[in-house]
Write a structure and sequence with these properties.
The protein is an alpha+beta fold. A hairpin with a 3-residue loop joins strand 4 and strand 5. The chain starts with 7 loop residues before the first strand and ends in a 10-residue tail after the last helix.
């Protein structure tokens, strides 16, 4: 076992093909951000599909310093291994994904820009909670995919 420290390990979809790609696509769909990032109130721009290099995403957040709108530009995109976005103040978020025997390992690395200063947005209190939410959300979606649609007919012919 390596000494790498990952932020979260997501259960690998045993019954689905291409699990790394599927998890990457879920996490890079900005419409899901308000469901797992506590400070995110809404997103707009490219949000309903997995983002691509060059896409713009507008994240409306409530920070400890008050409301803030991040204008993210996707500057790196290497599906399914990683992506990077940069906001108007230089804040950057880098996603890294790796498939291992125990699941999909996901890391979210953040570098604060000039507007964020000493904001406590990305401390373990916020990030730990965000990543717990992310793990639960992604595993719930995967569970639904694996279960598949079930049609219950109340009668037989």
């Amino acid at each position: 076992m390596s000494n790498e420290k990952w932020d979260v390990v997501i259960r690998k979809p045993a019954l689905l093909a291409n699990p790394l790609e599927r998890v990457f696509d879920l996490i890079t769909t900005a419409a899901l951000w308000p469901h797992w990032i506590p400070i995110t109130r809404a997103v707009s721009g490219v949000s309903e599909i997995p983002f691509q290099k060059g896409d713009m995403i507008y994240e409306h957040a409530r920070t400890p310093n008050g409301p803030y709108e991040f204008q993210w530009k996707i500057v790196e995109h290497n599906r399914p291994h990683g992506a990077k976005m940069v906001s108007q103040d230089g804040t950057s978020v880098t996603y890294t994904f790796e498939e291992k025997a125990d699941g999909i390992h996901f890391r979210r690395a953040i570098e604060l820009g000039s507007d964020m200063g000493s904001a406590d947005l990305f401390s373990w209190n916020y990030e730990g909670y965000s990543l717990e939410n992310l793990k639960a959300l992604v595993e719930k979606i995967i569970w639904r995919w694996e279960k598949g649609p079930k049609l219950k007919v109340p009668y037989s012919q």
